[in-house]
Amino acid sequence: MMTFRQLPATNTEDHSMTQILSATLKAELKNSRIAANIARSTAEVFAEERHFSGNVQEFGHTFELAVSEAFTNSVNYRDPSIKDITVTIGFEEESNALTASVTDMNAPFNIHPPEPEITEYPEGGFGLLIIWKLMDEVSCSREGQSNVLSMKKFISRP
Amino acid sequence: MNIAESTINGIKVLSLEGVLNAASSPKFKAYLETADHSGPMIINLEQVEFIDSSGLGLLVRLARQKKSANEALKLAKMNDRVKRVFEITQAHSLFDIYDDIQAAAGN
């Protein structure tokens, strides 16, 4: 089941670069591919509307990949007794940046794991590494029983 | 994800198509484990539209197996989206990467 809740647009005369301009979008999802595709589409539309001077498709791929990795982490590290997991993805727009958030009900986790040593041919450990490499800011907060992983990418620096 | 197998110059070519992520990687892993894939191999990634860390980890695992067996594993025809994942993780350093199949096969 997929539900969307769009919050009212912010209407303000303050045009500071960090001002949240439009909306927050949230969706509860069970399929990582749907989450990743929503992330890509959202990012591409965001970049186009902001007249992003860089590669819009690459900006979309950045969010597609990061959300896919975060979603997979949520599934892989869920309570083993839980078979059917729901992950909430959200997006927050600012004038010069887009933030994707991925929320799950898992135990807290370390967002700074050691990087895999590539010369040892590691099979795992790439997920968070990819997120850190792609994004400008990554943070994780604990809200009640939930982890909220936030991933921000700027289209221009303030 | 679809997997097609062919041979060029006596080298096995696995052509992957679609998404190589956490959901589809088990299919590719099972394919690799249920048949004899000894000998040099080329992975054709031209039709892979998306790869994430799960797919990458599986290819790294295959690279390690081939290295242990002293057999060649070559990747060919990566698009920019796939190439990006290999580059940001440095995994590209573990593979011989070619722009086309003929070059990978040594023609």
UniProtKB/TrEMBL annotation, chain B:
One of its GO terms (molecular function) is anti-sigma factor antagonist activity. Pfam families: STAS. PROSITE patterns: STAS (PS50801). It comes from the Bacteria. Residues 1-107 form the STAS domain. Belongs to the anti-sigma-factor antagonist family. PANTHER family: ANTI-SIGMA FACTOR ANTAGONIST TM_1081-RELATED (PTHR33495:SF2), ANTI-SIGMA FACTOR ANTAGONIST TM_1081-RELATED-RELATED (PTHR33495). NCBIfam families: ant_ant_sig. This is Anti-sigma factor antagonist.
